[in-house]
Amino acid sequence: MSLRNLLMVMIMSACLMIMIACGNKSGTETNSNSRVDSSVLVVQELHVAPVLGIVIDLNGKILHIETNSAAEAAGLQRGDIVQSITGLNVRADRFREIASKVHNTPAGNLINVIVERNNAVTELKVSPKSPVGTSNQPTPTAVPQDEYYL
User: Fold this and answer.
1) DSSP state, 40?
2) Domains within the chain, CATH numbers bracketed
3) What's this model's pTM, rounded to 2 decimal places?
4) What is the strand order of the sheet 81-85 is part of?
5) What is the pLDDT along the chain (150 residues), one digit of tens a residue?
6) What is the DSSP string of 100-125?
7) Which of 150, 145, 131 minimizes the C-alpha distance to 7?
């Protein structure tokens, strides 16, 4: 099964679980104007939280930058060591907090990313954006344990 197909199965499963949790156990919904057969699930629109488009390790080292990502546009480079994002020091115990700040950044707003590159500290401004799939691959990029996608 391709990654794209796996992602679609996961999305469809999550939608079905939400329908069941909301009390739609019969598989159909009705209102005064129409009847909807939810046994056929159609995902009309998917909103993905803004991201930088990078994969970093526990030490903040950038291992991967997605093509056409906010990070690529801002000039982040593979091998950069991310020291802080939005003023939060990059540590394993803060990745959820950092990810939340990135994901909740309104479109067009810039965040500060401080990196170490070639023994020099550089501050970059990045405008997180929703990830875009490239080369028929889904995004976000799959990452191994002990690595983080932001």
Assistant:
1) S
2) 3-37 (no CATH), 54-149 (2.30.42.10)
3) 0.62
4) 88-89, 81-85, 111-117, 120-126
5) 555 655 666 676 665 556 555 554 444 444 444 444 445 544 444 446 788 888 888 889 999 998 888 999 999 999 999 999 989 998 767 888 888 888 888 878 999 999 999 999 999 999 988 776 544 444 456 666 667 777
6) HHHHTPPTT--EEEEEEETTEEEEEE
7) 131
